[in-house]
Amino acid sequence: MALDPYMFREVPLLELPALVAELGYEWIELSPREDFTPFFNHPRVDDGTVRRFKRALTEAGVGVSSVLPLYRWSGPDEDDRQAAVRYWKRAIQIAVELGVDTMNSEFNGNPRQAAVCERQFWRSMEELLPVFEREGIRLVLEPHPDDWEEDGKRAVDILRGINSPLVSFLYCAPHTFHQGNDCTGIMRKAGDLLTMVHVADSFDHTASSGLRYIVNPPGSQVTVHQHLDIGQGEVDFDEFFSGLESIGFDGIVTTCVFAWEERARESSAFMRDAIRDHLRRWAAPPTFESS
Question: Dihedral (C-alpha) 148, 152, 154, 157: value to the nearest 10 degrees?
Answer without folding.
Answer: 120
